[in-house]
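Task card 7
Instruction: Convert sequence to structure tokens.
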Amino acid sequence: MNSKPGFLLPRLSVLDWVALLLFCILFACGAYYIGSADREFLVKPGLFGLADWVLLILFSFAGLPLLTFGLVAVLALIGAQFRWPRFQFWKFIPSVFALMAMGCWATFRPFLFSDQFVIADRPEQNASSHGDKSDRSVRVRILHANIYRFNVAPANLQRIADLAVSESVDILILHELREEQQSFLDMQLTESYPYRLSSTEHPYFGFGIYSNRPFFVRNLMAGRIEALASIRVQASPGCDDLFDLLAVHPVAPFNPRILGVHRRTIGSLAEEITARKSAIPVVVTGDFNSVEWSPDRRNLLQKSGLRQAVSSDGWEQVFRGTYDARWWETFRLPIDAVLVSGDIRVLELRRVAIPGSDHLGLLAEVQIPDSANCASLRNFHRLSP
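Output:
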């Protein structure tokens, strides 16, 4: 008696199943990571929290490092296929392509997600800045740098001070500042930067803000494993407030428990921004200790409405890494950033070498709308034409 043929699974070899399983795992992990941004800054309990942390660490290298690895792996598989044709190495190429797709998603984010980034001095983004000739705005140059707490050589510190002066920096923000470094820099920068705020009690998260514009402190969180300073900068003494500047340095998420502290700092930053009563412009600079495509960084942009500033140079838009400055360009991670609110025009953003540091610094020039009616502004500021 003839029976109707049923549904039959294709006969797959062990190698086929291994390749298919690997592809499914990589695809599922990538999909989970990409879709995990819209959540609270919390750590999941138990094994879920451990898995979440492992993915966070692994995908920290999902940019150019992963693209480089994928390219090398594809070439290796093709070479092995030609050398040993009977082993069918080509079946693993789709898995490598899945990794490379993740690398492209992380590397080319400024091109793929224009709503989350602002490119320095892009005409179509900043056309409104030139629309009203009566509009007056103030240009501010900000240098953010993690100077490395063991970087105590006077020659290096002198070069850092000289860099700020030579680049006509208005506000200098330094992280991992320890007492010896602060004492030296205070002596060098007294004349150029009369307004200061610093904390060196906990050197790994010590910081210093040097400014040639007056400011007052809005919030300060200087702890053993986190730092967050919020100041309101004024155009000049006696004038109205110009913009809010926040400097942040959360702890690196070395394990699931520390990841909770890391996310608490990022969450505090988001709350500090969203809880503001005024519509004053905002600039955030920081060594975030997490890459820009991490769920926490993406969640911060979603909740705050800020955008990350990137260079107008095409090479710098792709190679955005700041840590470790001693590594090859391809392997540096973009953990430092400058974020701005939508009413701020970014005129310049570029990485700069910081003598003796393991981080590259970020030099940003921003144009901030100013409503102050101060006669002294004409002589005190570089006004836009």
